[in-house]
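The data are set out underneath:

___
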Amino acid sequence: MSTTTTWSDLSRRAATVVLVVLCLIAVPAVASAKLSSGQAVSQSVGTARMETPTGVVGGYSCKRGGTTETITVWVVSFTDNGPDDATYSYRLTRGTALADSALSRYKLVQLDGSKSRDNAATTWTVSIQATLGNWTSGTVTKSITCPATGDRDGFL
């Protein structure tokens, strides 16, 4: 059996090779084509975030009697620019010692603390933090110094 190659076979093979080479060149160029539009974006996407409460309004009363010093703190309101439906964590501390705490959906709370009288000024700290699900805001703090002697009332 003898195989002879005709001119038409050679032409067909040459054309096939040329087409394959053109496909190898053209396909990546088409795949990397840039799509563009003259239209501006009509939507913007953002994320909600927890905001640190600000503008705390309230008052306090320091009392000294017998062997005990007490403080009562009232938080009446504050500004929360974060998402709605937050829960607020309130803490009253003396140094690192927790004196009182509350967890509430309201911006109105009373916290009480006491300690043994030592005739020295005492600094108390009120802190408020908002929480929504697993999100937490920054913490706003207000310091109150009760005098070494006598009572004191004041505003946060």
Q: What stands out?
A: The mean pLDDT is 85. The beta strands are 54-65, 68-79, 87-94, 97-104, 109-116, 122-132, 135-146, 152-155. DSSP finds one helix and eight strands in the chain. The longest helix spans residues 7-31.
